[in-house]
Amino acid sequence: MTISMYQASVPRFVNILGNLSGILDKAQAFAEARKVDDTVLTAYRLYPDMLPMTKQVQIACDAAKGVVARLAGIEVPVHEDNEKTLADLKARVAKTIAFIQTVTPAQIDGTEEKEIVIKRGEKENRYTGMQYLLGHAVPNFYFHITTTYAILRHNGVEIGKRDFLGNP
Length: 168
Description:
Blueprint: H1 10-33, H2 39-42, H3 53-72, H4 86-100, H5 105-108, E1 115-120, E2 123-128, H6 129-154, H7 161-165
Antiparallel strand pairs: 1-2
């Protein structure tokens, strides 16, 4: 049995983003119970040279929607990076899930060898579809989801491995 490009992307991103949404719910409940402004959490960094939690969620969402759109050959939706609160971040996650779910297996399957070109400033990175998905986008996505989890856990939000993994 083989796994398709669609199976390796859309359902996995949707699942983990849904879990992230649940984690953000727990963070909101934590902040409300302790009468803490939730922007204390969203602005938190694990280390001074790391990005704050808000940016971690934004990048995770961008990674998921970006790879799905590029593999499908459609325009990557642009979301303004203006989220400040946990509710704002949950809305961004929901928008990302909604977009990803519009893409069908027929749009992604068979893109293993598709050329994907990513421009960052003057530099271009070229990938095959599979290389981009499995070697760049998925690890990048999980890195930022994990960092978000670590920031919240470090601040005392009662979340655990089951919250991160959910029910795949």
